[in-house]
Model the fold of this input.
Amino acid sequence: MPEFTILSNDEIGSELRGLPGWKVSDGKLCCDFVFKDFLTALAFINLVGAEAEAMQHHPEIFNVYNRVRISFVTHDAGNQITDLDVKMARLAALSAGKLTSPAK
Done:
């Protein structure tokens, strides 16, 4: 597990301003994405999965047809949001940007 810094609520709020579509829900950094079809959603999941594996920081991913909900929290930080979660959220947003935009 890489090193991390636990973020305060103010820091999380500041980071969220730069992550359109992302929010804190149930103590996790999360976003809902809608893609044109199942295969595009699956491509997104695979892109995020490869990034997560490379960073050894894995998200919760829920998929139904063309919709994907992704959530990040650092379990080794007592299930708190850290800089790693924000970094992964940015990478996920970039991956989605290659395919579509987050749901509103």
In short: Residues 38-55 form the longest helix (18 residues). The longest strand covers residues 28-34.
